[in-house]
Amino acid sequence: MGGGWAGCSAALTLAEAGVAVTLFEASRTLGGRARAVELEGQPLDNGQHILLGAYKQTLQLIERLHPVTPLWRLPLTLEQPPAFSLACPRLPAPLHLLAGLLGARGLNWREKLAAAHWAHIMLRDTATPGQLTVSQLTRTQPEKLRNALWHPLCVSALNTPPELADARVFRRVVRAAFGGRTQHSDLILPRRDLTALLPAPAAARVVELGGDIRLGHRVTTLDATPNAIALGTQDDMSVFSHVVLAVAPQHLPALAKQVPVLGPLGQAVAGYEYQPIATAYMQYDPDFRLTKPLFALIDGPAQFVFDRGQSHGQAGLLAFVASAATNLPSDWLDQAEAQLRRIVQPGPTRWRKRIIEKQATYSCVPELARPPVHTPHPRIFLAGDYTAGPYPATLESATQSGVQSAGALLEQL
Fold first, then answer.
1. Residue 140 sits in the same domain as residue 80
2. What distance separates the 2 farthest-apart alpha carbons in the chain?
C-alpha cells in the first residue's frame, strides 16, 4: 500500500521473488514525496534531489532497472562562491577528505587543521550522546566552518535545522560518505525525473511479472484477521494474505487505529513533527549555464542551485532548493534569485514556479522512536523512510526499508 520509493522497492523485491503483488497508490503518479510533476510543459520534480555514492541500495536498484544509467556521478565538490570551495581528490578514503579540507579555499590554516581534526574524530570515535544536536556537536568548530560546511551538510542531509538535528544520525551520514570507499562521497545527480528514475520502471517490472498496479486507488479501510488482511477503497474491498504499509508516516495513524494491535504504533508515529522543502524553478535564456552543475548558496533562503540544463538537458533551467524551509518569507523567490546574482548574471527570468512540500520529511531530532518493519500483527509490515535504519529521511532510507520489509514478509511464506 503506497507507490512511493519504499512501496515500489518492496513490490519489486516481492514480485522478483515470485509473489503475486498488488500495489495501491492514491495518486495518479508514482513516487510519493519524490515524484515527477509537469510545469510549463516540462517534466520536473516536486523537489530537486541529490544522492550520495554511499546510498548503495538505491543506486543498485536504479542501475538494475536501466540498461543505460540515468545518473551523473561527480567527485565531491562544494562550491560556495565567492567565500568557500572544497574539492576532494581521488585518493583513498578518508585521505581524500583530509586533502580536500587542507586545500579548501576560503579557510585559513587554523581553520583547515581544526576541520581535519574534527573530521578525524567523527570518523574514528563512535560515541555520541543520544540527546546531542548537530549544533552542539559542532560547537568546537570555527564559525566559518560551521556555516560553510558542517551545517549546510546537516540541513541538506537531514532536512532539519542544526539546533534540532540528531547528532548521531548526522555522524552516520558523515561516516558513510567519508569513512568507506572514496566513491561513497560522490554526489550523484539524476538525469531523469524522479518517477522515471525508479518508481515507474519498478512498477513496469512488477506488471511484467504478473503483478497489478492500481493508481488513483486510496486505501481508506484496513481490516485484519489472524489469517488475512482486507483493504478497502472507495470502489471495492480486496483481501490479501499479507500487506506492506508503505504510506507516509503522517498517513499511518488513520490506518493503524483500525487494527487494535497497531494502535500504539500509530500513536507513536502521530507524534512526529515535519519539515518542509521548497523548490523554485527559474527559466533563463537557453544559452545560459552555470560553470558548475551546482553551487552552494549563502545569505538567503536557498542552500543550493542546480543547473538542470547540464543534468536533464533542460537548457537555461535552474532549480533552487531550500531545505528545512520553515518561515519562508513571501518574497523568497526574489531572495533566492538575488543569491544567484551575487555569483553570476543570468539575465532576465522567462518564468518562475515554486513547489513547497510542507511535510517533506519528519524532523530528525534526538531520541526519535523509529519503528521496525515488523509490526505486532504477523501479516502486516511497514516500509518507509521513517522506519528504523541508519540514515535520516532519504531515498536510501526508503529503498532500504522497502527491501527489508519485503524480505521480512518472504520469511513467512
1. yes
2. 67
